[in-house]
Write a structure and sequence with these properties.
With 150 residues, the chain is an alpha+beta fold. The protein has one domain. Helices cover 19% and strands 45% of the residues. It has a 5-stranded mixed beta sheet. A two-stranded antiparallel ribbon has the order 1-7. Strand 4 and strand 5 form a beta hairpin. The longest helix is centred in the C-terminal third of the chain and has 11 residues. The chain starts with a strand and ends with a helix. 15% of the residues are buried. The mean pLDDT is 90. Bound molecules: zinc ion. Zinc ion binds next to loops.
Length: 150
């Protein structure tokens, strides 16, 4: 799945990019947490006076296993993160104490690969306890688990 944004030769101003991320993305990472996904990724590159920022938005749903009944559980996600984009030779100029995360690129980079960032932030966006609301667990799965645990 292509999660790359070409940044070479971008003019000053705002440049929106968007693409979809589905289950195959997480398969490629051999994720044992996320089994399926339907996510919209929106990246807004803003270039201004040699500075570049990236506002990343990840919205949609991912499917994970419920911790209690092990059936599929769909979790809505809405992650918004601002990043500073820096090239390694200028990395020292990263603003001290800036709250934005930094995406560091080689000087020769002509694109930003968002794959790892998307993967990390989806996982960070998941709740620690992944369970269906009380009473909504799959009753069949619960029965079967009860048998196994006997
Ligand atoms: Zn459940």
């Amino acid at each position: 799945m292509n999660c790359k944004i070409g940044i070479r030769g971008l003019s000053n101003g705002e440049h929106p990019f968007s693409f979809k991320v589905d289950g195959s993305f997480f398969e490629a990472y051999e994720s044992d947490t996320v089994s399926d996904a339907d996510l919209d990724v929106n990246a807004l590159i803003t270039k201004e006076n040699g500075r570049m920022t990236l506002d990343l938005g990840i919205t949609g749903e991912v499917t994970v296993k419920c911790d209690r009944c092990l059936a599929d559980l769909r979790i809505p996600l809405d992650v918004q993160m601002p990043f500073q984009v820096m090239f390694s030779s200028y990395a020292d100029e990263a603003e001290e104490g800036a709250s934005d995360e930094v995406i560091l690129l080689d000087n020769s980079s002509s694109e930003i690969d968002l794959s790892q960032i998307i993967y990390d932030y989806v996982n960070l966006g998941l709740p620690i306890k992944k369970v269906h609301p009380e009473g909504e667990c799959d009753p069949e799965m619960m029965e079967r688990l009860k048998d196994i645990l006997k």
